[in-house]
Specification:
Length: 428
């Protein structure tokens, strides 16, 4: 396999049950109406308890809601092959016929990778970071189907993880998996429905996909320790490669897909939020949007994000899809992440975009005021992917990310400083 090919998305330009409640609301707003209205684990072993491997650290100060957010978590294809149970490695890509080719590329780039591995392996240093930061809620964009379905979608790249490996999410204490993205239907609608069942049985809330428009549009409802509810809505936009026919429709499972980023769509999201929101709820909208290899933030994205805050009362916009970190903004005291980069993928050794540093990511830890949703602070832990696991990024990489965020954030009014351990902190 050529190492210059094979990037699946190289498009042209835990909280234990005692500490949190997970609810799943029925109902929602049809997306058509939204647009129109505006080492290995033995198969016999039980799944780990949510948060196993991530010891709990400090409690947040009174009056604070701490979150963990990140970009794409891609546990399928090559990553899936690391575990004792995995899907068949056969691929249908023009440049690769086996998921093991991606494991071989990573080994050639950075050295030996054990097989099989346990679920903690791929999280690497991220587990210590999560234990130390002890966020109240942990939310990721899960960009893979969790299925053994053979109902392959008519597209070039297909991501899936064996359902036996859902423990890889539980071991990191993931509370919510956002599914409105361009890989969740890689193995068909049957694969999507199995993904939803597997995650539900594992105690992981989902948002952005479902059996029909109402289920796909409904939020995940997460309970914080102080009794605050956090509503997580997830939406996908076509700019991230989500096909039109992946949109959920009556009698057709799919994702919550935005027709466009117009003011009409903002009004539709506002109506959706109003349908579910209670007076003390905090609202997060997770958006899969935009392409790669460009740090420019389109005006329509900024206008849409601002509109969500102005018209829908959204407290935080969580944007992802780009395989590299993009700038962020604080608008009216609310955080807007335009592109979080990838936290975990199987792209090591693929050549052609090294100058964008797609191996680097950030673990975002925003702190919100529960009563208002106002951003109180933001800390970001730089990471990199080596041997298919997450590492703390070295000083040079942390400095590179700081320079990027400050250069691209200048027009957005954001400045970050770097602490001695490489942590990036938003300046007040």
């Amino acid at each position: 396999m050529s190492a210059t090919l094979g990037n699946s998305c190289h498009r042209p330009s835990p909280r234990p049950p005692a500490r949190r409640r997970l609810l799943r609301l029925g109902g929602g707003l049809a997306l058509g109406a939204l647009a129109a209205a505006a080492g290995g684990r033995s198969p016999a072993r039980a799944l780990p308890t949510p948060g196993a491997g991530v010891p709990k650290g400090r409690r947040p100060p009174a009056g604070a809601l701490d979150l963990f957010l990140c970009g794409d978590v891609m546990t399928g294809r090559g990553i899936d092959q690391l575990f004792a149970r995995h899907c068949p490695p056969r691929l249908y890509e023009p440049w690769a016929r086996s998921a093991l080719d991606y494991v071989a590329l990573a080994r050639a780039a950075h050295g030996p990778i054990p097989r099989p591995v346990d679920f903690e392996y791929v999280w690497g240093d991220a587990l210590e970071v999560l234990a130390r930061m002890a966020p109240d809620l942990r939310i990721v964009n899960l960009e893979t189907a969790v299925t053994t379905s053979e109902e392959r979608a008519d597209k070039g790249i297909h991501y899936r993880m064996h359902p036996a490996n859902v423990g890889v999410l539980r071991v990191a204490g993931i509370d919510c998996a956002v599914l409105a993205n361009n890989h969740v239907l890689d193995w068909g609608r049957e694969g999507l429905m199995e993904t939803l069942r597997v995650l539900r049985r594992a105690g992981i809330a989902t948002a952005g996909a479902g059996a029909g428009p109402e289920a796909a549009g409904a939020p995940a409802v997460l309970g914080a320790p102080d009794g605050t509810r956090v509503l997580v809505f997830a939406l996908a936009h076509g700019s991230s490669g989500v096909p039109r026919d992946w949109a959920a429709a009556p009698g057709r499972p799919g994702v919550a897909r935005l027709a466009d980023l117009s003011a009409r769509s903002v009004a539709g999201v506002a109506a959706l939020v109003a349908r579910h929101r209670r007076s003390r709820d905090r609202v997060l909208v997770s958006l899969h949007w935009g392409g790669n290899w460009d740090h420019h933030i389109p005006a329509e994205q900024r206008d849409f994000a601002h509109g969500l805050i102005d018209s829908a009362g959204v407290d935080l916009v969580h944007g992802h899809s780009s395989h590299h970190v993009k700038a962020f903004e604080v608008y009216r005291g609310r955080l807007i992440l335009y592109g979080c980069g990838d936290l975990l993928n199987d792209y090591e050794g693929i050549r052609g975009h090294e100058s964008w540093r797609p191996d680097l990511g950030l673990m975002y830890f925003p702190r919100l005021e529960p009563a208002s949703g106002r951003l109180l602070g933001l800390r970001m832990i730089p990471t990199r992917i080596r041997r298919m696991r997450i590492e703390r990024a070295p000083g040079e990489a942390s400095a590179w990310l700081q320079d990027l965020l400050n250069r691209e954030g200048r027009a957005l009014g954001t400045v970050v400083r770097r602490e001695d351990d490489g942590t990036l902190v938003l300046e007040a």
